Amino acid sequence: MMPLMRDNAFTEDQYRGFVALAKSKYEFIKYDEIDFSKKFVLWRHDVDFSLNRAESLARIEFEEGVASTFFINPHCIFYNCLEKSQTDLIRRIISMGHSIGLHFDSEYHSIETEGQLDDVVSFEAKWLSDIFGSPISAFSFHNPNSLLLSFEKATYGGLINCYSKDFKTRLGYCSDSNGRWRHRHLFDVLENAEERNLQILTHPAWWQKRENTAKRKIRRCAFGRAEAIMDEHEASLLKHGRSEDG
Length: 246
Known about the structure:
The protein is α/β, with parallel strands linked by helices. The protein has a single domain (12-212), classed as Glycoside hydrolase/deacetylase (TIM Barrel), CATH 3.20.20.370. Helices cover 43% and strands 16% of the residues. The chain has nine helices and nine strands. Strands 1, 2, 3, 4, 5, 6, 7, 8 and 9 form a nine-stranded mixed sheet that branches. α8 links the parallel β8 and β9. The protein is globular and about 65 Å long.
């Protein structure tokens, strides 16, 4: 593995280095294990574009001996978590000791009130939990707007709110949103380790084998899925003795 550097590379090698550095400074915990008397990091992944990328990061973490939480969006336009190949990926992530959470798309439900949020978060969390046989303890907003960010209760629908007022005031925060370090560079946050408790947000699509632009990384995720679907279609035709012409 290449040495960890303070640069803007978003590669698998760099990711492994960040995980190793975090492990040397903090205890990795899950959202149902929070104890503010201890020094910890909550590492979360909002899976926006690729479950394949999520599984790759899950494996790196497994090899490094840590576990995190992968937030799944039931309404994602880039993957279908009910598709067999994608369901298998989520199950593999869980089998490596990781947790799943709900990545909540408020626009799908036209959320306008906290009451609506309570009801739908509860419904979708139960749906995910029932399908994958894994408890759901937390949710994160997908593309939160100012209204959603004003919903700051500790829980909604029985799930821990990753954007709660308590988290905003008691947890240090670092995010790679849009394929860049939005507020602070993760290397500085981890190397200095000045904050007792951290919540780190990463998006698996940014972390690939080789560095590229954010746009090209998203295109790779999208076209990679398209090619895989076509391969599955052609394999099905062969299996059933059919041709492209019927």
